[in-house]
Specification:
This protein has 380 residues and is an alpha/beta fold. The chain contains 13 helices and twelve strands.
Length: 380
């Protein structure tokens, strides 16, 4: 973890100083983003492992449009592959299901972990994902097959690849390949939580093939906002691009941001203002209640952190609902356990988003929440 942190801090200092040519600064900015995304993935795996060990891994089932789901993975993977000169093939079989019921977030994370791992250990050639359907003993499965032309794994090492903190490749020769050894452990745990199966075949010098089979689950009533965003953007990428580029997603909307970290508050304000919003920032729940006052029409939504002094996010949501505030309250927090989400929703929050903040998805989630509230308000 020190390596990406060193890159982030070093390049950030150079950018702050204004050093380098325009081309160099662009390269440094991409390096900061890339290393920060890597760190976010590492932290996500560590938090997932903690939840798994506590037995607190919960599932949120959703109806997934399979082609759109696969398309949503492409931009996340292609950049990594291009940096190594690899080609990535995304194939959805003609007999693949149109829709599948599963936990979208966990299905995406386990697939992403497998794809990223394949790219890490493929020095030339390709990485391929094929999605289809398979029936075994009258049970139908969504079949995800990920193969690569990488260095492969010896038969002696295959049994250890899902163990936590284990890296089976020779660090003497692959020391530049970063990782914690948690990614595949998370993959196995998520697959088992979804009642699925996983099988790995590999040959040293020729590559690896991982097969994941996921049965269809029972759909929950509540849908995950970020999942809906990914599906919409994948189904109609032109619409998503227009909304992001025009900066009018939140035009004429007034947003109250409640965040005690000045750095995070500045980031949220910049992202929302770029999307056209008018933003007011306060540092705790007491100031948020004072800012709203008796004029409940002044703000279109509240975005709040949870852990704050004086009045925290839970109490803020609770008090606003008691005061008759009916508009969206979005919890944006580093707390990521299932019980944290449940507590936020029980306190009166409309939705729950975890940090880190995606500059594209965050305004979209907020706009969707405001739009949903507006539609509900005019219903008889």
């Amino acid at each position: 973890m020190r390596t990406p942190l060193t890159a982030i801090i070093g390049y950030s200092h150079l950018l702050e100083e204004g050093s380098g040519s325009s081309e160099q600064r662009d390269k440094w900015q991409r390096a900061v983003i890339s290393n920060a995304q890597y760190m976010n993935g590492v932290i996500g795996n560590i938090l997932d492992m903690a939840a798994i060990e506590r037995g607190q891994l919960s599932l949120t089932m959703d109806r997934i449009e399979v082609k759109a789901w696969v398309a949503s993975l492409e931009p996340l993977i292609e950049q990594r592959a291009e940096q190594k000169g690899l080609s990535v093939l995304f194939i959805v079989d003609s007999k693949a299901p149109i829709f599948w019921v599963s936990d979208r977030a966990k299905l995406s994370e386990l697939t992403m972990n497998l794809l990223i791992n394949a790219i890490k250990y493929t020095m030339q050639g390709h990485v391929k994902i094929e999605v289809s359907k398979e029936a075994i003993n009258s049970t139908e499965y969504l079949k995800i097959l990920i193969s690569d032309s990488g260095i492969g794994i010896s038969s002696e090492s295959l049994s250890a690849i899902f163990e936590p903190f284990v890296r089976v490749h020779d660090l003497k020769h692959y020391s530049k390949v970063e990782g914690t050894g948690l990614g595949l452990t998370v993959v196995k745990s998520f697959t088992e939580a979804l009642q699925g199966k996983i099988h790995v075949e590999s040959e040293v010098g020729k590559g690896t093939c991982v097969e994941v089979l996921i049965p269809s689950g029972e759909r929950n009533v509540r849908l995950d906002t970020s999942s809906q965003i990914a599906s919409v953007k994948a189904t109609d990428p032109h619409l998503a691009q227009v909304e992001t580029d025009t900066g009018c997603l939140l035009e004429a909307r007034s947003i109250l941001v409640c965040e005690d970290s000045q750095t995070v508050a500045m980031l949220i304000q910049a992202i929302l203002e770029r999307a056209g919003a008018r933003v007011t920032v306060v540092e705790n729940g007491a100031l948020a209640i004072a800012a709203i006052g008796p004029d409940t029409d002044h703000f279109d939504a509240v975005v709040t952190d949870i852990q704050m002094p004086i009045i925290d996010g839970y109490e803020l949501a609770n008090q606003l609902r008691q005061l008759g505030w009916a508009k969206p309250i979005i919890a944006l927090t580093a707390l990521a356990a299932p019980e944290d989400e449940a507590r936020c929703l029980a306190a009166g929050c409309s939705d729950y988003l975890t940090k880190s903040i995606d500059p594209a998805d965050f305004p979209t989630a907020l706009a969707n929440a405001i739009r949903s509230h507006s539609q509900e308000a005019v219903m008889p």
